[in-house]
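Troubleshooting: if your tokenizer reports a length mismatch, compare your output against this known-good record of 252 residues.
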Amino acid sequence: MSQQLAALESEAGHPLLLRKGRRVSLTPAGELLVAHANVVAAELERAQATLDALASGTAGRVAIAAFASAITQVVAPALAVLRERSIELSVRDAEGHESVRLLLDGEIDVAITEEHRSTDRFTTFPLYTEPFDVVLPPGHALVGGPVDLAALADEDWVVTLPGNPLRDVVEMACAQAGFAPRIRHTSDDFRAIQALVAAGAGVALAPRNAVRGVPVAGTPPLRRVVAAIRRGTEDHPLMRNVLDELHLVAQR
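Known-good structure output:
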């Protein structure tokens, strides 16, 4: 032990112990080295715990795709909490129908998307439900709301692109109100839709978390948002942790 201490003092370039007879005490340099050693020891313990969690499947990296408002409302808050548990989220901005394709192609692990028809290839877990609002240009006669959709039968419309399930929701809501929307402009970006409406290009229906508009009179169309994963992965501890935290944030 004396040889090891002598070697340590030589390496440190400072005396580390004061010898008083049979007793020794730490020098200021020795006290500093002990403080750093404690930090290093704690980091080694933390590293071992992380490796143990990785081996058990409770830590690791999960790739997730979600549309913009879900990233803002759910994914980002969950990311901050999961990082503290050694779970890293890799986040990709994608519309719901696109994220499902990415999921089935194996490019991501979790898709935040609109509720889809059941399939044998993935399992869904409900997160939240939000109503659609009517988006009107400034000064429109119906800005005060709520708005009866039938009153918008003669308007130009701004809607999402073909293939986006939200377009189906809008067309179905208009059909139930007794008309087919006169589509003039299309975009899958709700910021662009909002800008087009603000410029007087038409009216729109949009999920409330994406664009805050005027409530629909009566029962509004709804977007039911789910987390989808490939069937068979739902019992993996890592996936379970991610899904539980997404659900918890969504309920808040």
